[in-house]
Description:
Chain A is of the alpha+beta class. Helices cover about 30% and strands about 20% of the residues of chain A.
Amino acid sequence: MEPVLKLLIESGHLTTAQMAQVAGMSEAAVERRLEQLKKDRILLGYRPVVDLSREAAGGSVRAVIEVKITPERGGGFNRLAERLSKFDEVESCYLMSGAYDLLIFASGPSLQKVASFVSEKLSTIEGVISTSTHFMLRSYKEGGFLINAPIEGSDRLKVTP
Amino acid sequence: MDSQRHIARHVVDLPKSGIRDFFEIVAKMKDVISLGIGEPDFGTPWHIREAAIYALEKGKTHYTSNLGLIELRRGICSYVERHYGIGYRPEDEVIVTVGVSEAIDLALRALLNPGEAVLYHQPCYVSYHPGVTLAHGVAIAVPTRAEDGFALNAEDLERAWRPGCKVLMMNLPCNPTGGTCDRARLEKIARFAVEKDLVVLSDEIYSELVYEQAHTSIAVLPGMRERTIFLHGFSKAFAMTGFRIGYACGPAELVEAMMKVHQYSMLCAPILSQEAAIEALARGEDSMKAMREQYQKRRDLVVRRFNAAGLKCHLPGGAFYAFPSVAGTGLSEREFAYGLLDAEKVAVVPGTAFGESGAGFVRASFATGYEQLIEACDRIDRYVQGLRR
C-alpha cells in the first residue's frame, strides 16, 4: 500500500510533519500525496472519534436502519442508495447481501427526530419497500476505540533491561 | 548483627545492575520520555489474554508436567520446525520455562562444573555475565563492534577461547545492539563450536523481529543440532513479557538435565501462561507481523534522526533497540545519558550497563509510539546541538 495512505489509516492522528518523519519524506511530499488522495476520492475527509452518546458531545441518538428497496433496470440499487445517502441524518450507507438491501447508520439530536426522518422521509421515497429501525442503546467501542477502558501501557516500568 | 557476612561471596561480588541504578533516578522524575524500556509498548493481543481468562474460568489452576503442557510443546515444535527449520520431539526435546531467563539459568546450571568457562558476546543482555557467575562458571566476554553492525565474528571467538571453555552463549538479534549474524558468519561460528566441542546456548528471543534479512538459527547448521540449546519465548514477538513464558529445545539428554534443575526449583511454568502461549502460537502470527512492521518504521525513523543529529548509528538488523555512538559529543555514555536526562528529560541507557564493550554508546529502545519517538528525537537533537556550542 502507498506509505502515506497506510500511515493515515494506521496512525491518522499524526500531523503532516510527524507523518513526514515516519515515512522518511519531506513534509511537502506528504502534503502532495494527501492532495492527490483527496483528488482521487480515496481520502474522503477527517473526523475525530468521539463518544457521541456523552452530553458533552451533544448526546445524539443513533440508529441502524435496514432498508429494502426495489432495484432499477440499468442502475440496480445505486441511484436510490445515492439519493438516500444525501440526507444529513445518514452517516453511512451500505449495500448488503442477505435479508435486506441497504444498511443505514443514521443520527439525530433526539429519538423523535430520527423517527420522523424514517417515517416521513426515508420510507415515503418511491422504491423503498420497507424499513426496520434499531436504536442504539449504548456504545462499547467506537471506531476502534474502547469506550470504557483504562489507557494501557502506562504502568510499564520506565527503564527495564 | 552484620547480615552481610552471611551472604555468599559470589553473590556479594556480583555488581549491581547498571540499569537498576539508572531506573532509580528516572523513576523519581516526572514527564520523562523513556527510550529505556526493554519490552514492547503493545499490549498482549486480546485473543491471547482472553485465552488466559478462559483457562482461569475453566479451572486451569493446577501444576502441569515439569516439561510443560504437551499441547504447548507440540505447538512449540511445530512453530520451531516451520520458522527455523529445526525438528524437535515434543515428548523429550523441549522444556517450557518461566521466560528465556529461566531457560538460560537452567542450561548454565545443568552444563557448568565450577570454574568452567562460557564465551559470550558483549555488549549483551544484562543477565549473561551474572548468570554464569551464579552457576559458578567463568564468563569470557567477546567484543562485537559497531562497524560490523555488532555481528559476532568467529575470529574474535578464536582469540578469546582458552582451554576450559565449554559453552558459547549467543543472543542474536541482540539486546542492546540489534546486531544480527548472516548465515556465512554463523557457519564460521558453527565450525568453531564444533572444533572446540562447545555447547551453544542460542537465545533467539528477538528472532521474529528481524527486518531486511531472514533470521537463521545456528541450530540448523551442520553438526549444530546435537550441540545447541535453542532458547526462545513469547515476550517480544507476542508482547507477553509479564506472562513470563519461554522454552528451550535441544537434544533429549541436555533437556533432561535442565529438567532436573527445573523440577527442583520452578516445578513448572504457570499454567495460565502456558494456556496463553498455546493461543499465541495457534493464532498470534498476524498480530506479530503487524507489530514487526511498526517496529521497522520506528527503527528507520530513529536511526535516521540519530545520524542526522551527529550520533553515529548503525542500522540494527533486528530487535527494537538502536545503539548509537555518543563518542562524537566528547562525553562518555554515562555523562551523555545523565546529561540528556537532566537537560531534556529523555532516558536512554548507558551502553556500559551491557558490559564494558558498550562504552561510548547508549541504548535507545524504539518500542514506543511515533509521537513520543519524534519528540524524543527532537530533544536529543537539541541536546547534542547544545553540546557543540
